[in-house]
From TrEMBL:
Residues 35-54 bind DNA. SUPFAM superfamilies: Homeodomain-like (SSF46689), Tetracyclin repressor-like, C-terminal domain (SSF48498). It holds the Pfam family TetR_C_16. It comes from the Bacteria. This is TetR family transcriptional regulator. Residues 12-72 form the HTH tetR-type domain. Keywords: DNA-binding.
């Protein structure tokens, strides 16, 4: 039941609605343009309730991206035989970006991280905890952490060029074409030879 000011009390549904309002604000206004007061107004609650649930704008952003980003779907691509991880991962990654329920959220988060150091730090913490950690534990080869980071760099660059900057011809290629050309590189990062030990021994690549 709403209070005398027309604002709803706190409950799990209210918390979800605050997170939805926050994500819409991050998409529309970026991290810097989003305020606790504005999110509260959009969700129809008192700003104090937003603070009660999330503590700060940083806490709100962290919770919003943790709820909105389909990390489990990407981690799930590592289940199965290692010989086809690259193909599964790139396919799932493109599906997520092209899903209208997830693509705009991903774009908003990357825009926020690129524009605001605080948002970048929060995204780094989330990525390390929820994505890179689980991926590293699923890889059986050496240098698992470096392999996961190299893969992340490839996929983030792909998203930036294809979905955010929309640079052709990559932006207009079919998903199947992108998988065909990108998956082998991702596969090599994840399971192929990296020669890191040889490079470390000489101090420079041969």
């Amino acid at each position: 039941m709403a209070d005398e000011r027309g604002r709803r009390p706190g409950n799990p549904q209210t918390r979800r609605e605050i997170l939805e309002a926050a994500m819409e604000s991050f998409k529309a206004h970026g991290y810097g343009g989003t305020t606790i007061r504005g999110v509260a107004r959009a969700a129809g609650v008192d700003p104090a309730l937003v603070m009660h649930f999330f503590g700060s704008k940083d806490g709100l952003f962290s919770a919003a991206i943790n709820t909105s980003l389909p990390v489990a779907l990407l981690v799930g691509a590592f289940d199965g035989d290692e010989a086809h991880i690259g193909e599964r991962l790139v396919t799932k990654y493109l599906e997520v970006w092209e899903d209208p329920a997830h693509g705009p959220d991903l774009s908003a988060v990357l825009h926020a991280a690129a524009a605001t150091p605080a948002a970048a730090e929060l995204l780094k913490e989330l990525t390390s905890r929820e994505l890179l950690g689980p991926v590293t534990r699923r890889l059986s080869g050496d240098h698992a952490e470096i392999r996961a980071l190299l893969t992340a760099s490839q996929l983030l660059g792909l998203a930036m060029i294809r979905y955010m900057l929309k640079v052709d011809p990559l932006a207009s290629m079919s998903a199947g074409q992108v998988v065909a050309v990108v998956a082998p590189t991702v596969q090599r990062y994840l399971t192929g030879p990296l020669s890191l030990d040889e490079i470390a021994g000489t101090g420079r690549p041969g």
